[in-house]
Design goal:
By secondary structure, the chain is of the alpha/beta class. It folds into 2 domains: about 170 residues, 3-Layer(aba) Sandwich (Rossmann fold); about 70 residues, no CATH class. It is built from 9 helices and 10 strands. A hairpin with a 2-residue loop joins strand 9 and strand 10. Helix 4 crosses helix 5 and helix 5 runs parallel beside helix 6. The longest helix is centred in the C-terminal third of the chain and has 18 residues.
Length: about 270
């Protein structure tokens, strides 16, 4: 068995809030309270739970958008949680994130070609605009968009198209780990299946590892290799998706399975 690409050990991410009133005591919110898991090369691990359970904070902490309180996160054997922003910058190419809101995640002032070219130039993958446009065109086709759209602005696209552009921005760097944070939950149900099937196809074809964060067990069933169920900042059950869906051990997992609505994926992308 190969070594894990990502190993998370005892992650804690706590937030301190101001107390109410002049002399109110500060409170500590333990959003993530001792989370550990591994992700193997090419594996999709889904992290599921209700809103507020801390699952998105795990993803944001792994991408240094939130600061870990304690714990370790090893990527290819190296602990990166304690790295400074400048030290972590080279890893940003390998660890990419698909955000939930396709409207807020794109700069409205930039054309699509500028949005997609920026990471290429930052990471030194292109030296000229001609080189960048070749890669941008190929990546847009990969996510099901006409390369001609690179001259347009985000407001000219639907939510589903914007999320495809967000996915293109991630995949153009050929990352080793993708963290997808509620990547389809902000879309219309009719569009969710298309985007989910696209993510599944891109992951399968590229072999990239993925942490897929969702509140919907019906969605993660179609994309996961393993599933981790999170409740109040902790993982209460983790296992192969067949075990989780057919023989859940924890009471919370059983309640989640029985209460969360599921979407119909229809025909999958070949």
């Amino acid at each position: 068995m190969s070594d894990p690409l990502l190993r998370l050990v005892g992650l804690h991410t706590h937030f301190q809030t101001k107390g109410s009133g002049l002399f109110g005591k500060k409170k500590v919110i333990k959003a993530v309270n001792g989370v550990s898991f591994d992700i193997a090369p090419g594996e999709v691990l889904s992290l599921v739970g209700e809103s507020g359970c801390g699952k998105s904070t795990v993803g944001r902490t792994l991408t240094h958008l939130e600061k870990a309180t304690s714990g370790q996160a090893f990527f290819e054997g190296n602990d990166f949680l304690a790295l400074t922003p400048s030290e972590f910058r080279p890893l940003r190419r390998d660890i990419q994130m698909i955000f939930q809101d396709p409207f807020a995640s794109l700069n409205p002032r930039l054309k699509i070609e500028q949005t997609l070219a920026e990471p290429l130039f930052i990471h030194g993958l292109c030296k000229t605009w001609d080189e960048a446009r070749v890669q941008i065109a190929a990546t847009l086709e990969l996510v099901g968009l006409d390369p001609k759209v690179m001259a347009r602005h985000p407001h000219e696209f639907s939510g589903g198209q914007r999320q495809r552009i967000g996915i293109a921005r991630v995949m153009i760097l050929k990352p080793k780990l993708v963290i997808a944070d509620e990547a389809v939950s902000a879309l219309d149900v009719s569009i969710q299946a298309q985007v989910l099937n696209l993510i599944k196809k891109l992951q399968r074809d590229s072999g990239v590892s993925m942490l897929f964060i969702s509140h919907d067990l019906g969605v993660v069933r179609h994309i996961s290799d393993r599933v981790a169920v999170m409740f109040e900042g902790q993982i209460v059950e983790i296992g192969d998706k067949t075990q989780i869906f057919e023989a859940p051990q924890h009471e919370y997992t059983r309640k989640l399975l029985g209460s969360i609505p599921r979407i119909s994926l229809g025909r999958e992308v070949a």
